[in-house]
Amino acid sequence: MKEREIYADLRCVSPVILRVDGRNFQRALKKEGFQKPYDIFFATCMADSIELFFKKSNMNPVFAYTFSDEASLVFTDLPFDRRVEKLDSVVPSFLSSAFTLFSGIEEPVAFDCRVIPVCNDQFTEYMHWRQQEAWRNFVSSYGYYTLIDEGIDRKSAASVMHGKKSQDIHEMMFERGTNLAKKPAWQRRGVAVYREKYPIEGYNPLLEEKTQSTRTRISQDWDLPLFSTAEGDNFLKRHISLD
Question: Which pTM was predicted?
């Protein structure tokens, strides 16, 4: 029967990005009373779940980017002998469990996962694409839920929003006294989790002198640059190419 395990030997070549996405999160989060369009506790649970993945999964990602209920994790060294079936199952199951632990919700939640093979010079392009999606999601979410708060039913609000460009929604919100450009950076640009090296100072009692060494820690960044800028490009190359 072993030969009936289809795709069990399907493998990918590193580097890859694994993108997880919440499945039916809207229903579960609504039941649990999370705020719309953005909830700081939800965003914190997402970031903390990813940080825990870095620390406890033994899978060694080098960088992750998250917004809303999706996250993209960068791997330059793959576990499980590069088996896609394993990657696609272990990563989302770990994050589903971690999110449930951090959030304390009673409603079951799940992530799906896809494997995205990339070349070394495509990481910036990919992250720029996802950050653009974060911005589109940010603008449309504020527009949609503003209409809902004004008493418009969901179907009508969706109809009003259909086909509107980001610039039009931005102007619609500005007319209502909300400048979307002033909203927190994590809502507009997402959150990153990554490994970084930092120096620590010690003391050698035998030599009676101070010493310098390097450690690695997991950091969350809630104030990201635009990945489409030179600053953003340097940021990504610095953290994704971490040795």
Answer: 0.89
Residue with tokens 């999606």: 133
Which residues lie closer than 8 Å to 115 by C-beta, 6 or more apart? 12, 16, 17, 18, 84, 87, 88
Residue 152 domain-assigned?
yes
How far is it, in rounded angstroms, from Cα 177 to Cα 170?
A: 11
Tell me the CATH number at 79. 3.30.70.3000
Q: Are 15 and 89 in contact (CB under 8 A)?
A: no
Q: How far is CA 189 from the centre of its chain?
A: 10
Distance CA 65, CA 18 (A): 11
Q: Tell me how far apart the alpha carbons of residues 178 and 239 are, in angstroms, rounded to a whole number.
A: 34
User: Which of 144, 160, 183 is a domain's end point?
Assistant: 183
| Matching residue, tokens 């102007």 | 171
**What is the number of structural domains in the chain?**
2
Nearest C-alpha neighbor of 169 from the set 202, 134, 141 = 141
- Going residue by residue through the chain, which has 243 residues, state the pLDDT in tens, using 9 for 90 and above: 666 666 677 788 878 999 999 987 877 777 778 888 999 999 999 999 999 999 999 998 999 999 999 999 999 888 887 788 888 899 999 999 999 999 998 888 899 999 999 888 888 999 999 999 999 999 999 999 998 888 888 888 888 888 888 888 888 888 888 899 999 999 999 999 999 887 777 767 776 677 777 788 899 999 999 999 999 999 999 998 745
224 secondary structure, DSSP code: P
**DSSP class of 180:** G
